[in-house]
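User: Show me a protein chain along with its predicted structure.
Assistant: Here is one chain, sequence first, then structure tokens.
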Amino acid sequence: MPKSKSKSKKHKEENDSESEEFNPATKKSKRDDGVKSKDHGPEKCILHVHGFEHADFTPLSKIKGSATDKLALLHNIRDRRLQEVLDSPFRMDDVCNLIPESLVGANLETTGYHRACYQKFTKNQGRLQERPSVTSQQASTSRSPRKCGSSSAKQLFPPECIFCGKLEVKVLGKTERCIKFPVYKTKDGALKEPTWKQISPQAFELGLHRLHCMVQGEDLFAREANYHQSCRKSFNLKYAKLITSRGKALATNPVSETEQTTMAAAHQMSFNAVLDVIQDQVIRQNKIVRLASLRLVYTQELEKNGFPNPKYRSEKLKRKLEKHEGIGISMVTADLKGCITHCLIFSASLSILDAVRNAYKMGSTDKYEDVALLLRGTIKKTYRESNSLPWPPTADDLVMSLDDLLPSNLMRFLTLMISGDADLEKSEKTRRLVLSISQDICRAVTKGEWKLPKHILLCTTIRHLYRSKLLTTILSRLGHCETYDFGLELETALTKALNEVSISLGPQIITGEGNYVFHLEWDNLNKITTNIHGSNVVNWTGGIMIQEVKPGFDAPNPLEIQRMLPLYERNKTRSLKVDIPETLNTVHIYSPAETTWSHT
């Protein structure tokens, strides 16, 4: 019995040593490398990372594509990681040593990687250095099965995209991998002029020197260069915008004094705004947009540049888009019941599935969506262009013309909705409601960042009348006023500013030869308050200054004095400690008898 047990133990150790002969660089036990499979033996993770949960194991026999291509991809990432400095956290030497050089003799059912290990090894590729060259061995493992001469095998392009330098990119939540440049033939069998030959001169005009030097004079088809379709679309549209934006300089050129030249520059800038919308929604997001929506963007940009033309026809914009090359869009006309015609614009590479999905979305879109998005964009634009609120704000800062501050489109919409008439001046009640609701909407759209007079004044008024934090908080949550803490911050800043200017005479007091009579009067102005704790008295002492100026002396006009309080950078200070000096600064006031008065 002892011999049998020893023999069984020895046989088990031999099996363990044989299972570790696949990769001698690992020197890891079965428990570290994976879970033992009942059918195929122990699983070998070639990207094993210790210290976290590894999730599911994926054998190379069940991956999408060829196992050889996947190994070539891992070799490429390994070489780039090993080019980092020795103390770099991106080298991952332990994991790089686990990757085999080939899969000859390897069992693809037990050889693979954990999902978490693969994600750990393939992330942060954008921070890795580019490979300086591709060796012949790497080129032979990563090249496609297309026929190519043996002399060009050492000159193949890297497997990354020539535009972004990445192997994979995320587009609308989907992973997009690189593809190679094609070459097309005509019906007669002759080769068409490849479009990728324009990449080199276009990159030079765009100032992309790295891309220009990479593709200059190269046959991208023979050298098997790779690219992402989304990256190439973005490159083509960027070049198209460069061509159309060359007239943009005419708007700022002092030589262009004629109205015709300025109008042409305004139309060019409006067309560039339309191209930006196409790039964002049609090309990147694969959406279908109406020509009428692009026409609205065009007319709004014209109005912004000083040449309003609300009657600009959609057919003109359509002809401009058709003449413009390199956008990568297609157009189709849809007739609805023979009376309404819509021109739809979509990406030329849009799949049937995406086309059906976007068509369904367009058919089920709420008819109020366009109005809501237009008003939302107008409010955000007006907020960005408005002046920042001085801190602390005074009464003069808050008593402003709301007609010039609030968006006119929003006020016109609310006036028409409330009264049924677009004339805001017809009813004072309607005007008051429109101004109040407009400020609430602007504050809600900007998430409370736009500080408007209604919310500031109502917050301070509620605080002074009732001293109730709960009441102020309820009104603030309903969007009617600022928060209770904002009221404390405002009062603290005003107290600090008043304390600084109260130790000296105001700017309206003449302290020179023009003074005739100067008088100061101080008295208690106590305020009796009542709250849940009973009655209380707020002690406050106020003073006034009375001065008579000599006849013929020009005194400063109080209306010309813009601000008497200092400005601060806004902070969240809600308390203030005031140190009153024992002796005030001496201020000289000259009497008619040349007597010097001073207040201390």
